């Protein structure tokens, strides 16, 4: 995308129709790649389990107890809504009602398309409804994800201590890498909040070293505008409230996993749901629609450390279905209410990163 920005600057004969075609082809390419990865991961996960055998096993499952997944799952999204409302408070007073539609729609789009397009859509929809500046809105979305990552990182540390000897070196490396990534992003955000222009200049210096001055300048402007959305971190009380809300989100998500274990005829220990959510988080790092295939694979690879007799493949299927299907359905309803069409999503996905947020300031 950065290359596209540079080309547009120096080419007065840019063809808009051709450019749009290239963007559409890029989106299709990413979606196709995501689907290929998903299908490949599903094949590798279930290659030793025949389709007939899997269907037969699923037919024996008592689906009714799985309804108890939904209350804590719904509550986790309610906590997300209140957290986002609090993150937005230094920028604008946004009601929970106005934040609900954009949040659910964004999560639904994230569950269908790879590339986290839903995060952009969520901030754009809120800007349309409330007039909140695009950069500030998007900054709060990213900040919410960072708090999610740090909470998940804390859970990961607990699981690493508990299962260090049982986990393979690959899983250990992946978990530690995820923690390191979230800590690095947090440090960048803290630097932007404390030093603003100086931090933005340092972060964009590598582009200047390779003589991409225009790109560096635009990125620096984005980072400076983005830092305005970090104003909430100046208030210790509100920061603590955000941390507590983030903990509530993940406690509810952990509780939503419990019915799946019970349906599989397994007892439950406090660390079982934590491991499931961490493995699912690792699977989501690979961009496939709704983590399909990659989440299943991560669970099938990682769950045996619990030493349970259940079929990890069936568990993965039930967990994935009960976690993603409800938000897809709720998000579709929210999208209809918000007046979001497939063309709106496509248009946002086709825009350059800078255009996505600056257009709504």
Radius of gyration from CA coordinates? 21 Å
> In the residues, how many domains can be counted?
1
Helix content: over 70%
Give the helix tally. Answer: 16
Q: How is the main sheet built?
A: none
Task: Give the averaged pLDDT, no decimals.
Answer: 80
Determine the strand fraction and express it as a percent band. under 5%
Low-confidence stretches: 1-14
Overall geometric form: globular
SSE string: HHHHHHHHHHHHHHHH
**Number of E-state strands:** 0
Oligomeric state as shown: single chain
Give the CA-CA distance, first to last residue.
21 Å
| Coarse structural class | mainly alpha
Structure, explained:
By secondary structure, this protein is mainly α. The protein has one domain (46-358). It has helices at 2-10, 16-46, 51-59, 70-88, 96-112, 117-130, 134-163, 169-195, 197-209, 213-227, 236-263, 271-284, 294-302, 312-338, 342-350, 353-358. Helix 6 crosses helix 7. It is globular, with a radius of gyration of 21 Å.
């Amino acid at each position: 995308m950065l290359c596209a920005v540079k080309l547009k600057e120096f080419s007065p004969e840019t063809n808009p129709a051709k450019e749009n075609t290239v963007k559409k082809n890029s989106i299709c390419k990413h979606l196709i790649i995501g689907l290929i990865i998903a299908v490949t991961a599903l094949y590798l996960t279930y290659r030793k389990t025949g389709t007939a055998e899997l269907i037969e096993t699923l037919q024996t499952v008592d689906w009714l107890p799985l309804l108890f997944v939904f209350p804590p799952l719904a509550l986790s999204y309610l906590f997300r809504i209140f957290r986002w409302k609090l993150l937005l408070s230094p920028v604008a007073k946004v009601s929970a009602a106005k934040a609900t539609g954009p949040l659910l729609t964004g999560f639904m789009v994230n569950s269908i398309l790879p590339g986290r397009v839903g995060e952009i859509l969520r901030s754009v929809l809120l800007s349309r409804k409330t007039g909140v500046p695009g950069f500030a809105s998007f900054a709060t979305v990213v900040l919410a994800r960072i708090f999610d990552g740090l909470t998940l990182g804390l859970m990961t540390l607990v699981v690493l201590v508990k299962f260090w000897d049982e986990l393979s070196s690959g899983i250990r490396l992946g978990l530690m890498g995820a923690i390191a990534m979230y800590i690095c992003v947090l440090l960048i955000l803290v630097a932007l909040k404390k030093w603003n222009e100086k931090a933005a200049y340092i972060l964009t210096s590598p582009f200047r070293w390779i003589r991409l001055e225009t790109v560096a300048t635009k990125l620096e402007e984005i980072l400076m505008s983005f830092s305005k959305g970090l104003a909430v971190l100046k208030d210790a009380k509100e920061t603590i409230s955000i941390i507590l809300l983030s903990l509530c989100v993940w406690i509810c998500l952990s509780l939503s996993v419990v019915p799946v274990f019970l349906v599989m005829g397994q007892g439950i220990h406090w660390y079982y749901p934590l491991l499931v959510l961490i493995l699912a988080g690792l699977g989501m790092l690979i961009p496939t629609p709704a983590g399909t295939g990659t989440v299943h694979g991560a669970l099938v690879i990682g769950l045996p450390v619990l030493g349970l007799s259940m079929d990890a493949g069936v568990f993965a299927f039930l967990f994935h279905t009960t976690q993603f299907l409800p938000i897809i359905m709720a998000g579709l309803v929210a999208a209809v209410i918000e007046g979001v069409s497939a063309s709106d999503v496509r248009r946002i996905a086709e825009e350059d990163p800078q255009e996505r947020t600056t257009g709504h300031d």
